[in-house]
Specification:
184 residues, alpha+beta, YbaK protein, five-stranded mixed beta sheet, four-stranded antiparallel beta sheet, 5 helices, 9 strands, 26% strand, globular, YbaK/aa-tRNA-synth-assoc-dom, YbaK/aminoacyl-tRNA synthetase-associated domain-containing protein, aminoacyl-tRNA deacylase activity, YbaK/aa-tRNA-synt-asso_dom_sf
Length: 184
């Protein structure tokens, strides 16, 4: 199989690679119910030393920078309560944590969650967090530009390997809320 974007030596439908995914991501792929068939979720094997977006794009294809999305965990705080959420924006943008995300969460203060919280709560590796397989009760805030991208490269739950998915597929994930201006 050839990946729909980038220059990868190994690409396979994600349902054939469940053993290469973290447990929450494998469970989400196994139980996939989106409008896009699970076989359109493509796993590509990659070098974990090249996981950072700019280095990754330089090695696997310059077009990937504009077709990659980052998923970050945000902690919104209000009155002693903390709400965790995931935010997905294209790699060329940054998450508007203190504007769009904070307001949507109804938080007084918002920040990126500490690494140990993000890793511990998602069951994924730092640098590989993906919107597929997040805790079901979390809000998943997605910038509208991500859904408008035909194919999007996202994490696989591990630093080794990535998923390439139709952008529109992310809008059907549990807890997904599409927002204008989340990525700035």
């Amino acid at each position: 199989m050839r990946a729909p974007l980038g220059d990868f030596d190994h690409a396979r439908p994600a349902p054939e690679c469940l053993d290469l995914l973290t447990a929450p991501v494998a469970d989400a792929v196994r139980g996939w119910r989106g409008d896009v068939p699970a076989e359109q979720l493509v796993f590509v094997d990659t070098d974990p030393e090249l996981a950072d977006t700019a280095v990754f794009a330089a090695h696997y294809g310059p077009d990937l920078f504009d077709q990659s999305a980052n998923c970050v965990v945000v902690a919104g705080k209000r009155g002693g309560e903390t709400t965790l959420a995931a935010c997905v924006v294209l790699s060329a943008a940054r998450v508007d944590v203190n504007g769009t995300a904070r307001k949507w969460l109804g938080a007084r203060k918002a920040s990126f969650a500490p690494m140990d919280t993000a890793v511990g709560e998602t069951g994924m590796e730092y640098g590989g967090i993906t919107p597929i397989g997040l805790p079901a009760d979390w809000p998943l805030l997605i910038d509208s530009a991500v859904l408008d991208t035909e194919w999007v490269l996202i994490g696989s739950g591990r630093r080794r390997g990535k998923l390439i998915v139709p952008g529109k597929a992310l809008g059907g994930l549990p807890g997904a809320v599409v927002l204008e201006g989340l990525g700035v």
